[in-house]
Specification:
8 strands; 8-stranded antiparallel barrel; 1 helix; mainly beta; Lipocalin
Amino acid sequence: MRITLPGLAALAAFAFLTSPAAAASADGMYKRPNGTTAKVWTCGGKLCATVQESNFNMFLSGIAPAGEGTWKGDMKHPDMPGFMTFNGTVTTSGKGLKVQGCAVGQSMCDAETWTKQ
């Protein structure tokens, strides 16, 4: 099989567009359903977040990538006591994020959809 220069360019473009670095970033400011604003950023290749209008330090403290547009790990809920930790999943969804936390394995879950500002 012989690869031509245009074929090589197309292959390189495909590899770039499908690489994790080219995936849509979750970084930014998001409006939560209750009206508060969450700041989301990448920290050390993981996802971190804080609620801007509260004294809550950080509720996503470096959850790990788990596939294209998905992160998983322990998280805290900004409206719950700080000692409570949940199994968290964050997924990119249209113009926002779906943030889900589960307690007791996957049996008791709650989710919010955040809109990117």
